[in-house]
Amino acid sequence: MAGYSAIVVAGGGGRRMARPGPKPALAVGGVPMVLRVLGAVEAARPRVVVGPDTLAGLLPPDVIVTMESPPAGGPAAAAAAGLAVRLPDHGPRPDIVVLLAADLPFLTADAVDTLVAAARDGGRPVDGAVAVDGDGREQWLCGAWSVAALRARISQVGELSGTSLRALLGGLTATHVRLADVAQPTPTFDCDTVDDLNRAEEMTHGRA
Fold first, then answer.
1. Do the strands 47-50 and 64-66 form a parallel or antiparallel pair, or are they unpaired?
2. Alpha helices in 18-107 (DSSP H)
3. Positive or negative CA dihedral for 115, 175, 166, 4?
4. Preceding omega of 105 cis (within 30 degrees of 0)
5. What is the pTM of this model?
6. At what angle do helices 33-40 and 109-119 cross, to 10 degrees?
7. Could you please report the per-residue DSSP string of 109-121?
8. Buried b (16+ CB within 10 A) or exposed e, 3-22
9. Would you say 174 and 127 are in contact if contact means Cβ atoms under 8 Å apart?
C-alpha cells in the first residue's frame, strides 16, 4: 500500500454522551476511541487530529493536533484545517488523505487500506472513496480522498464554517465501499450516544 496521510476529526461536544471530557477520549474496551482510530492509520504520515488541545496529552508524540477556524466550525472546516497543517519536517504530503471521525471504535487497518486502494483505482476517474452503510448511505467521516481534489473542492466551496460534509464531499466523484464486507463489527459503527458506547462495549467483549 502506497503512503497516505490521515485527518481525524475529533471536535464536537459529545453532548448526548452525558459524560465528562471530550467524546473521542471515551474508552471502548479500555482504549480511548481516538487511539483506536489512530491505531487503524498507524501507517499514515502525517497523522493529524483536529480537536481540542485537551486531547494532546493522550495522543502519540508523532500526531499533530490542530483546531478548525473558527472553533466549533464543523467537520468541513475541520477537514480544511487538517489539510492546512504545515509539515516542514515531514516532506511532501502523500497524494491520498483519509478523513475519519474519532468515534469509530471498530475501524481497522484493512478497512483503511480498502478505502485508499479504491481511491487510487486507476480504472475509473474518481476523486476518492467513501464508506457506505447497509442502506447505501455515505458515511462522510470514513473515506479516502485525492488531496488535490479535496483542496480544489475546499477552494470552490469557500466559507466552510457550518458547511456539512455532504455539501463539501458530495461535490466530488467517489467510489462507494461497503466496509461491512471487510470486517465485523462494521468499521463504520460510530458512538454518538451512551447507548452506542454501551453497545460498542458489548460487541468488544463479544469478539474478545
1. parallel
2. 33-40, 75-83
3. positive
4. no
5. 0.92
6. 50
7. HHHHHHHHHHHT-
8. ebbbbbbbbbebeebeeeeb
9. yes
Note whether 146 and 119 are within 8 A (CB): yes
Collapsing DSSP to helix, strand or coil, 27 comes out as strand
User: Lowest-pLDDT range, 139-143, 144-148, 169-173, 178-182?
Assistant: 178-182
Other C-beta atoms within 10 Å of 110: how many?
Answer: 12
Compute the distance between CA of residue 25 and CA of residue 121 in angstroms, rounded to an integer. 34
Residue keyed to cell 468541513: 76
Concatenated DSSP letters for 44-71?
A: -SSEEEES-GGGGGGS-TT-EEE--SST
From the list 183, 198, 159, the residue with the least C-alpha distance to 80 is 159
As given in the structure block, the three cell numbers for residue 21 are: 471530557
Task: Show the cell assigned to 144.
Answer: 479516502
Cell numbers standing for residue 159? 466559507
- Judge whether residue 20 has pLDDT over 70: no
Take residue 77 and report the three cell numbers written for it: 472546516
